[in-house]
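FAQ: What does the model actually see?

It sees only this:
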Amino acid sequence: MTEQINNGAEPAAERGDRKSRRGYVVSDKMDKTVVVQLQDNVTHSLYGKVMRRSSKVKAHDERNTAGVGDLVLISETRPLSATKRWRIVEILEKAK
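And it is asked to produce this:
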């Protein structure tokens, strides 16, 4: 039997798909971190009304390029701090 040495790098196929979301930056006051508000439309299970739900997540912004009001694409990543599990992939639209 031969053992395979992994060196800590997993292939993308074994890791699974990572979520990606679009949202607006609502705070950029921290260093290398922004708060992104995500919105989701959910249908009520009993009444069928479409409701708008929102949640806020902290995302890693390495170069501090995102500002308040920017539309960003964020992706799930490994835990970077106690509350930060997302990173900014790209800025889709700058605030006016």
